[in-house]
Amino acid sequence: MTRPVLRWTTFVLFVAVLLTAAYLVWTNNSAFNSLNTSAGVFDRRAGSMTRSVMELRMAQQAYVAAGQGDEFWGSKVATQIVGLRDEFAALRTMTVLPEAQTEIDEAIAALGDFERMDARAKEYARGNQRLLASDLIFSDGLEKTSHMLDAVQAARTVEAGRIDALRRSARQKELLFAGGTAAAAL
After folding, report:
1. C-beta separation of 80 from 55 below 8 A
2. Which single residue of 96, 97, 125, 160 could bond 63 by disulfide (Cβ 3.0 to 4.6 Å)?
């Protein structure tokens, strides 16, 4: 290594290897950060849906509460059902894994069952059969909303597992880049 041209060529190759490794680590981090951001959006939206399902449950229970108007709470429940259906559809498009999509589909099916049960509960409440309405609301209504909540939580768990797996993969790539760069530098 007494020739200056050989030294400079080796130095340029070393710098090129370092820059390439830095670029690969940067693109890997950028991709992971965008994925992490979308996962955060998914998780926040799923958390919001949990609150919406709980509000739906409480609004339906007001059918049989003393002094509450059936029409007000009936329209509120109908509005919340439409909103939840739209939110479930939007949440389903955000998922990548088929397992999470299946969980969201189960929540949508439970919402459909809830809607049919809600129509019967409204009929009973309007017909002044509060005991039958409360039986539906506090048994079937709780069961259907619990199923929706469980499905949303299962989808959140599946998506969190996917993010953890991708995080491990990204870290392994970074270690591979660092090891390759160190080997090239030596």
Report:
1. yes
2. 125
